[in-house]
Amino acid sequence: MLKRLTARFTAIQKTTLTQTELFHQLKTAPNDVALKLLEEAQERLYFQDGSLRGGDFSGAQWQNGRMAKGDYERIILADADLTGIYFGGANLKRGIFRRAILKNANLRDADFSHADLRDADLSGAHLACVNLCGANLTGANLHNANLWGAIFDSATIMPDGTFWAGDEN
Fold first, then answer.
1. What pTM, to 2 d.p., does this model score?
2. Quick one: average pLDDT of 75-102?
């Protein structure tokens, strides 16, 4: 199994993938390969130019990936394992993160406005100054999450299914 993964990784390193091929690989690659593909996507500026906007990466394995300050509006990462990912300052508006694992993720200053975070695991996540206006957090696990300065509004649905109400976070 390890030989097969190593061979696959080596082939990816030696091959110049088209954008479509790279995105397809990102959907199914094991974490070690996915991290290399994420690096390549970043080098090609796909994070900044909006290439991943609306892309469906459900079930992706991007543990400890670095995707800061990218434009990922409407990205679909349902059922993805994003443990320890760095999405600092990223545009994740209207993204779908249902049942995603975002344990210990660094999401500082990210924009999750109107995002679907139902049943997401955000335990231990760094959510300081995150925009959660209009986000749906129904069933989300926020145990030990840092919500300092997080922004909510009356359209934000909290983990218990109620709408956020209050003047202070």
1. 0.89
2. 98
